[in-house]
Structure formats: C-alpha cells, structure tokens
Amino acid sequence: IERMHQVFPNITILYYEQNGPDTVQRVAENPHAIGLFITAPGYCLPNIAHNNHVITKTLYNTYCTALVSKDNSLAKQCKTLSLKSLLKEDLILYDPVGNLNQNLAFQVLSLFGEPNIRYCCSNLSAFYALLEKGNGISLGVEKNRSRQHRKEIATIPLREKIKIDINIIYNEKSISSPVIQCFIEKLEESYLE
Hints:
Number of strands: 7
Order of helices and strands: HHEHEHHEHEHEEEH
Oligomer: single chain
Largest sheet: 5 strands, antiparallel
Structural class: alpha+beta
Shape: globular
Radius of gyration: 17 Å
C-alpha cells in the first residue's frame, strides 16, 4: 500500500480482511478489487471455478508452520513439531469473519484431529498480540509479510509438509486500468523480496 501511494499519492485504498470465499465474491462483483487468499491441498474455493470474470495467480509457494511466542518452551525445545502435537496445545486462530467452516487453518488442523481452540480472533493485531504474549500456538505459513517485523513470534517447522500457495485474484475487467496493473506489480514485488 505504501509503494502504491508513492506512485499514485491521491488514490484511496480500502482494505478489508475477509476469508477466501468472500474475497473471491468481492473481486467478482467489483472490478476495482484485488484480493489475496491462501490455498492448500483439500481446501478449494469452488466459486473461483464458476466465475469467468476473475483471474488468479500464485505469488509464491510455502509450507505450513507452527507459530508460537519465542519464549514458549516449544520454541526453545522443538526443532520440528507434528500436527498431532499441535492439536494438543491451546490454539489461537485468526478468522476475520468468524466462520471456522471456511477457515483454512481450522480445516487443515481438522484433518489430523479435533483442534483445541482457545481463542478465535477476527483482528490480526489481536491475533499476533495473543501469540506474542504466549497465550497459545497457531498454524501459519513459513514466509509471511504481515509477520516479518514481529520478533516475539517464532516458527517451528511441521513434520508434515503441507504446501500452501499464496494467491492474488483480480477481476478481468480491471486489467486495462494502469492503477490496478501497478498495484498488482507492487504486490508481486513485495512478495518476491
């Protein structure tokens, strides 16, 4: 967003936190919307396949990881962690719209057993604050732009290698807009760093 304002200082950017299906719907209905969403094996967004007006592109691939306070004993003792072990811990999930049935982390965890959810946060700052204070553990991705300055959060690689794709989605009607093209380019650049 900062890079966009350097090129186009007078534009207004509306930022929404949504789940994947709602992001796809917003982009399909609004030619000026751009979205990011995560996909993993067994988790698909069915409305993408049925919508001819959206274009998706994978920005990068990564893997699931455990997220925990750097002061947590797991961060200090474990080089890797299994999903079965993760399920036994108090879990903190980020869910911007409060619908666990559409939550990627919940769906992935549920494949391995019953998640022990202690907190479910719709606010990303509150989610990270809970993790930093040691109130639980979460499922995340190895490379995450929103977490890069959070020095109090450690990652523990999972033994199960679950591939995650970070994707961009935009409306085909927007591709002729120089502002939208620039935003997509700046987004791609930021994820390649």
